[in-house]
TrEMBL record:
Residues annotated as signal peptide: 1-25
Keyword Transferase part of the UniProt annotation: no
Domain MRH residue range list: 472-647
GO BP term, example: lipid metabolic process
Organism from which the protein derives: Aphanomyces astaci
CDD domains assigned to the protein according to its UniProt record, in alphabetical order: LDLa, Lipase_3
Transmembrane segments: none
Protein's name according to its UniProt entry: MRH domain-containing protein
Top-level taxon: Eukaryota
Entry keyword set: Coiled coil, Disulfide bond, Signal
Lineage of source species: Eukaryota, Sar, Stramenopiles, Oomycota, Saprolegniomycetes
Keyword Disulfide bond: yes
Cited PANTHER family: ALPHA/BETA-HYDROLASES SUPERFAMILY PROTEIN, FUNGAL LIPASE-LIKE DOMAIN-CONTAINING PROTEIN
Length: 666
């Protein structure tokens, strides 16, 4: 299983850099639906109505049996639809529900059961499905999904219209289901003379070209496209590939307490969700209006388990290991006995998993023992103290040097300004202005260097100076931007090299930038022609400073800490992994590297300096284990080192090894 679980678990880990109000303070007004009346128009966006429709969409994520019985968690928040009909494709991967609300016939489609895989494999091929609308083009993959339920949809609608002939039709959906909803609205009108009165979608991707949007708005009188903060899905497919959104977008704040009515004539309003980075949030996609829209799964006893995010835990039948219920029925056999998937889907592999887990735990223990031995040898021979003494002596010299440099630069600057202050009749020349700027720059540079070396001179290297072994060394780590950020808008993913110099700085370089640019251009033009490398000098990206050494971070006050096997060995506050609980005093040391280069433009409300938190993990050798961008321009670097090994950690591993039990997620 991946290091970061999908679905609701991601919601627990994604942390935005700024609060809602500060992030939008320089934009158009954010309207609070609780206190603001936007318009008396009865056909304007109505949040109470949207919440009701959203709860129906949430029910669509349940299994067919539980929808029909109305026994899944979302069913508790909305009355069962009279004349309920559930439609599925042949493999029951895609699903919709239909029924009568008392006023409308409603059609609700759920999204993809594997969001990340769907986005990673999303192609951008278009099709022209309606001969009567030759200019209209839509996404081929979305159209295929619609075709998979087309016949069932027509039969279900015929049945409902026979019962409620005068009822207006409302079509809704989330994610992939929102795209299918948009296609269904136009196809029902163009091919079957059935006209929807309203379309309301949540987290809708771009579905078609401008001609599609124009025709869609002609067909359905009322369209509201709800988006949530930094939801990644509304950003795909891309505009330059010929896809555009329909208006009107309703953009919600992060906590869904307020929303903005976007441009009613432009589905690509630059002051709504389009203003967020293209590398956005998966977590914001699975919750809309504080309603979970993801595959909600029942436990092994056939009873629903509720919990955080409306999903809860699932207990594997044989091993009794708890996993997130968002992992159930996702096509991956997380429980070794296969109880998290449909019968006959998975082979019982508990014995193999137990043996593998024990072997991997043994390897972690042996590596930690080697690390502790290396640390003790280094400390016992006095090498650590010797290195620290040498390091601090050189730092003291550097501090003295930059103190003198600051004083000298300030004296020169004072002399220049004093000459003009004491003689007002003198007028500074252009050369004087340039000299002033140069001296001022010298002062600021000297002060900056003095601050850096003063901070280094006061750094602690551990109780026994064990971290002094890292002084004077740098370590690099190559990472793909998909792994770093959780996704990419580029056709070809970029590759970065992160360089960590302990107690100095963390930087990001991109040696392969020139080759990536050529590959990206080639991918964009396809096979039409071959992109030539005409550059006489290769494009070179300068290193980006992610952070300067600041301090050791304090230990957490709580005890919500887990040790993960095999790596990273420590993760805080992440349940459902192969873990054992420990007290916070065993949490690995964390370093902070701050005041990196600024992210965001001058007018960007999210503008901030980059920073890196370095997690020190016990290992037999010094090396970078992982690098992640867990929030915008906020990085976490896992570093393995013997200096982080302790007797308490070894004892904990030994106890875990003795009482080893199957860990299904390993």
């Amino acid at each position: 299983m991946a290091y970061l679980p999908a679905g609701c678990m991601r919601l627990l880990l994604v942390v935005l850099a700024y609060g809602v109000h500060s992030a939008l303070s320089s934009r158009l007004p954010v309207y609070d639906f609780r206190t603001s009346s936007l318009t008396p128009d009865p056909f304007a966006y109505n949040e109470t109505h949207a919440i009701y429709v959203g709860r129906i969409v949430s029910v669509a994520y349940c299994t067919k049996q539980h929808v029909q019985n109305w026994t899944c968690p979302p069913c508790e928040y909305v009355s069962k639809l009279p004349d309920l009909i559930v439609i599925n494709d042949a493999k029951e991967n895609f699903q919709g529900i239909l029924g009568y609300t008392g006023t409308h016939i409603v059609v609700a489609f759920r999204g993809s059961m594997d969001l990340r895989n769907w986005i990673d494999n999303l192609s951008f091929v278009k099709t022209h499905p309606w001969p009567s609308l030759p200019k209209v083009a839509i996404h081929l993959g979305f159209y295929w999904v619609y075709q998979s339920i087309h016949d069932q949809l027509l039969l279900a609608l015929a049945s409902l219209f026979a019962l409620h002939p005068s009822a207006p039709l409302l079509v809704t959906g989330h994610s992939l289901g929102a795209a299918v909803a948009a296609i269904a609205v136009l196809d029902l009108h163009a091919s079957h003379n059935i006209t929807a009165s309203e379309m309301l979608t949540f987290g809708e991707p771009r579905v078609g070209n401008a001609a599609f949007v124009m025709r869609l708005l002609q067909v359905v009188p009322h369209v509201h496209r709800v988006t949530h903060w930094r939801d990644i899905v509304p950003h795909i497919p891309l505009e330059w590939q010929g896809f555009v959104h329909e208006p009107q977008e309703i953009w919600y704040t992060e906590d869904s307490t307020a929303f903005k009515l976007c441009d009613p004539n432009n589905g690509e309003d630059p002051l709504c969700s389009k203003q967020v980075p293209t590398i956005s949030s998966f977590a914001d996609h699975v919750v809309y209006l504080n309603i979970t829209m993801s595959h909600l799964i029942y436990g092994s006893d056939d009873e629903w388990l509720t919990g955080a995010c409306g999903v809860g835990d699932f207990t594997c039948t044989l091993s009794q290991v708890r996993i997130s219920s968002s992992w159930v029925f996702d096509g991956v056999c997380d429980c070794c006995d296969g109880s998290d998937e449909a019968p006959t889907t998975c082979v019982n592999r508990c014995a193999t998993v137990a043996a593998t887990s024990e072997a991997r735990l043994r390897a972690v223990l042996q590596d930690a023992i080697k690390g502790l031995q290396a640390k003790e040898s280094y400390v016992d021979h006095g090498a650590a103290s010797s290195r620290v003494s040498s390091w601090k002596a050189s730092l003291a010299e550097a501090v003295d040097h930059w103190e003198d440099a600051v004083e000298a630069a300030e004296d020169q600057l004072d002399a220049l300004t004093h000459r003009f202050d004491s003689n007002p009749s003198l007028t500074p020349t252009d050369q004087d202005h340039r000299l002033y700027q140069q001296l001022h720059g010298h002062v600021e540079h000297a002060k900056s260097q003095l601050h850096v070396y003063t901070t280094l001179a006061t750094a602690s290297f551990g109780a026994d100076d064990e971290f002094a072994t890292l002084l004077g060394h740098c370590f690099d780590f190559e990472v793909n931007e998909k792994e770093l950020k959780g996704g990419t808008s580029n056709t070809i993913a970029r590759t970065y090299v992160m360089v960590y110099c302990p107690f100095v700085n963390v930087t990001q370089t991109e040696p392969g930038y020139h080759a990536w640019r050529l590959a990206q251009k080639q991918a964009q033009v396809g096979d039409k022609y071959t992109v030539q490398d005409d550059a006489k000098v290769p494009d070179i990206q300068r290193p980006i400073l992610l952070g300067l050494w600041r301090t050791w971070l304090p230990q957490p006050k709580d005890d919500n800490v887990a040790i993960l096997f095999p790596a990273p060995l420590y993760v805080q506050g992440v349940p459902h992994e192969a873990e054992t609980r420990v007290t916070s005093d065993m949490r690995p040391p964390h370093q902070l590297y701050g005041q990196g280069e600024v992210c965001g433009g001058r007018d960007d409300p999210r503008r901030r300096s980059r920073r890196v938190t370095v997690e020190m993990h016990c290992a037999s050798r010094n090396h970078i284990k992982f690098v992640e961008e867990r929030a915008w321009c906020d990085y976490v670097l896992g570093f393995g080192t013997p200096a982080a090994c302790t007797d308490a950690y070894i004892a904990h591993l030994e106890n875990a090894f003795k009482s080893a039990a199957p860990h299904d997620e390993l």
